[in-house]
C-alpha cells in the first residue's frame, strides 16, 4: 500500500475543493447558463430601453445619465447578489444535511476551512464569469462609457462574496430551510428593489436616505455605478468597499465556525 | 500479519455539551487486523469512529493513528484512511465514474492514475457496467458498493466501515462481505461497526462490545461466547400466556435462565442432555430447540434486551 501524506499548505487543498465545484458545474451547467446570458438582455431591453424611453421623455437624465446608463450597472450588482444567495442557502444545507457531500469531503485531507474557501472561490468564479457576460451585454446595448467598466466583473465578484460568505455560514448552521424563503422575501427582494437600484438615492425623502445607506446591496450598486461612469469619489468609494469587504470577512470567519461545528464536532 | 498496532486509544473521551458519548475507552488495533465495534444505538460507536477517522476531536484521552496524533495531523491521517459512513454521501446527479474521479481529486491523485484506479475499483465492486449511469438510478446495494469503492480510491491502509450492510438484502450483504475479505487479504486493516452479530462473527478477528459509551467486553468472537455465554442454548415454548411460572421448575437445569414473553432460554453446556433431563421430570414444552450459543446471546446479555432508540 502506498503511504501518501499531505503536508502541503492549504492552497493545494483549496484548489482541489474549488475543482470539485467546477467539475460538478461542468456536468450540470445547462440550466443556469441560459439565465446568465438571457437575463441581462431581458432586463436591459425591458427596463433600460423600454422604461428608459418613458423616463427620458418625462424627466430627461437621471443622475446625469440616460436611464439605460443608470440602470445597467445596478442590474449587475443585483444579479451577483442573487447569485451569492442562490448558490449558498439551499445548496449548502443540502451539502451538510441532505446529500451530505461536505461530510464526505471532511473525511478526506480537506479541513472545513478548505471546503469553505473552495465553495466561496467557486461562487466568485461564477460571479466573475457572469460579470464578464453582463459587461459584454451592456456594451452591446451601447451603455459602456469608461474604461473603468472593465472592473465591473470584479465588483460583481465582490458583491457575490459579500453575500455568499454570510449566507453559507448561516445555511451551515441551521437544521431546516424554513427561514430561507423568509430571507428571500424580506431581505433579498427588498434589497433588489430599494438599494437605489431603479432610481437614485436622491429620490427618497431626506430622512430615508441614511436608511438606504444601511442596505448592504446599496454599496454594491454604488460601486458598480462608479465603475460604469468612471467616477470614483474617494470617501464614498472607500466606504462602499469597506462594507462589502467587512461582510466578506465576517462571513468567512462565521462560516469557518459553523462548518467546523457541523462537520467535525 | 504483523502484530504492531496501527491505531491506539487510551481513555478516549468524547463529550457533547453535557452528554458523554464516549466515556474513557481504550483499545489497540493491529495492522492487517479486522476489528469490530458492537453495541446498541447510542453506545458511542459512531463517535469513536469519527475520532479514529480524524474528523472529530477527542475531548480527553490519547489517540494515535499511524503513530500520528489526529489533533495535529488530521489531513495526513485522513489521506491514508478510507471511510464508509453510515449513510451514503454520493453525488446523486453525477455518474458512477465521476463520483469516484471527483472524490479522488480531493486526495490530489493524478488524473491518469485516477482513471486506472476507477476502472479497477468499478470492476472490484461489480459496477463496471453502470459506470456512466447516474447514481440516482442505482439500487441500495449498488450505492453501498460505490461508497466502498469511493472509500478505496486513495488506497487506504485502514478502511473504516460504519454499519456497512444495514438495509441491504442477503445477496448484497454477502457480495459486500466477500469484497471485504479480499481487502483484508490484501493487508487492509478493517474497522467495522455493526449491530448484525452474524456480520461481526463473519468479518471480525477481534471485537469490543460498547454500551453507554464504555467498552463492556472485548476479545475474539469465540472468546466472547466462551466468557459470556454457555456452549449451547435450549429454547422452550409452553402452551401458556405467561412463561413466568416455569422459572423455579427449570432453573435447576441451567447455568442461567432467561424468561421471555414467548419462550424460556436455558444457557447450558449440553443442550440435548438438558432436554432429556427436562423430559424425565415430566415437563412438556410445546416446542424445544437446541442451538449453539452465538454472539447475539453475548450481545443481549451484555447490553440488555431493552429497546434503545
Description:
The complex is a heterodimer of chains A (265) and B (309). With 265 residues, chain A is mainly alpha-helical. Chain A has one domain (34-264). Helices cover 75% and strands 0% of the residues of chain A. Chain A has eleven helices and no strands. Chain A has helices spanning 10-28, 30-59, 67-86, 89-98, 101-106, 112-140, 152-171, 178-194, 209-212, 216-229, 234-264. Residues 1-8 of chain A have low confidence and may be disordered. Chain B is an alpha/beta fold and 309 residues long. Chain B has two domains: 5-226, Rossmann fold (3-Layer(aba) Sandwich); 230-292, YebC, transcriptional regulation domain (Alpha-Beta Plaits, 2-Layer Sandwich), CATH 3.30.70. Chain B has eleven helices and 13 strands. In chain B, strands 5-6-7-3-8-9 form a six-stranded mixed beta sheet, sandwiched between helices. In chain B, strand 1 (5-16) and strand 2 form a beta hairpin. In chain B, helix 3 crosses helix 4 (111-124) and helix 8 crosses helix 11 (295-303).
Task: Describe the structure concisely.
The complex is a heterodimer of chains A (265) and B (309). By secondary structure, chain A is mostly helical.
Topology overview:
The complex is a heterodimer of chains A (265) and B (309).
Chain A: H1 10-28, H2 30-59, H3 67-86, H4 89-98, H5 101-106, H6 112-140, H7 152-171, H8 178-194, H9 209-212, H10 216-229, H11 234-264
Helix pairs in contact in A: 1-6, 2-3, 2-6, 3-6, 3-7, 3-8, 3-10, 4-7, 6-7, 6-11, 7-10, 7-11, 10-11
Chain B: E1 5-16, E2 19-30, E3 34-38, H1 45-52, E4 60-65, H2 74-78, E5 81-84, H3 96-106, H4 111-124, H5 140-151, E6 158-162, H6 170-185, E7 189-194, H7 197-203, E8 206-211, E9 214-219, H8 221-228, E10 232-237, H9 247-250, E11 256-259, E12 264-268, H10 271-280, E13 287-292, H11 295-303
Parallel strand pairs in B: 3-7, 3-8, 5-6, 6-7
Antiparallel strand pairs in B: 1-2, 1-4, 8-9, 10-12, 10-13, 11-12
Helix pairs in contact in B: 3-4, 8-11
Q: Domains counted in the coordinates of chain A: how many? A: 1
Global morphology of chain B: elongated
User: CATH first level of the largest domain in chain B: which class?
Assistant: Alpha Beta
Major sheet attributes of chain B:
6 strands, mixed
| Continuous helix count of chain A | 11
Q: What is the share of helical residues of chain B?
A: 25-40%
